[in-house]
Amino acid sequence: MKAGSKPLASEPFTPRGVASFAHAPATRLLLFQLLVALTAASFVVWFIMDSVFPVIQSAVQTLPAAGEVRSAQLDWRGDSPRLLAEGRILALGVDLDHSGNIHSTADVQIEFGREEIWALSLLGYLELPYPAGPPFAFNRTELEPLWGAWRSTILFFVALVAVISLLAGWWLLATLYCVPVWVLGFFANRDLNLRRALKLSAAALLPGALLLATGILLYNFGAVDLVQFGFIFGAHLVLGWIYLFVSLLFVPAHPTAGSVGNPFAPLL
Question: CA angle 133-149-93, nearest 5°?
């Protein structure tokens, strides 16, 4: 690439395209970030609608007519242990004593005990105590209309949180990466300052985000399992680093690069 050549930033999918954002207006980078974030958020929403919400809906409909959580304890009016609903990815059940008698093939099993909730998966398990605040319903009569009224709102907030989290995460990581990128660009005679290195670092994270979003879609359709999705998650981080350093080679050379003459020329 010739010194001073600054191509229009039009795509963040190739190293040359990512490099072009170093000299592009910040608003153009923000536009592409927003498009990628909206795409990723839509995949997350689709995943929840297709693989999570149906299980929750079935579980709510299976609950007994009475029951609540009071004083940080579950007042359960049905059989225990009991599998409420199960899908390929999520299973919900009640086991007051966590006896281990609920056997599910789902990737994640949520088990409601007498004093705490267990979340079990290949990664291990997490214990969450019930809140000690006011009592809340744990029965079909009250939860079914609430679930019907709030499910759309929940999806909206999931999408909103996903978009905001991605944008904030990208700029946070870009802030951490920009100084090393600027130093490397200095020694490689690239036309970079800290602001341009920041934009380059932010743009380099977009291909990895698209890979992760695609992984979520493949996991939802059953094309990959939980372990394979874990590899995709790790790969999306590595891909960002690869794009970051390879794209640096496509940043235009500094205007003064190669203009300094041989200091020993008069002696030859």
Answer: 60
Question: Per-residue pLDDT averaged across 175-200, rounded?
Answer: 94
Contacts by 179-183, CB closer than 8 A, 24 or more apart: 181/244, 181/248
Any idea where the domains of the chain sit in the sequence?
Answer: 15-46+152-254, 64-138
**C-alpha closest to that of 12 among 216, 164, 231, 211:** 211
What gap in Å lies between CA 210 and CA 237, rounded to an integer? 11
Q: What pTM did the predictor assign?
A: 0.86
The whole-number average pLDDT for the span 44-71 is 95
φ, ψ of residue 85 to 5 degrees: the values are -160, 150
Q: Which residue has the tokens 């496509």?
A: 250
* Per-residue pLDDT, 48: 97
Helix residue ranges, H only, 2-68 = 15-19, 26-47, 53-62
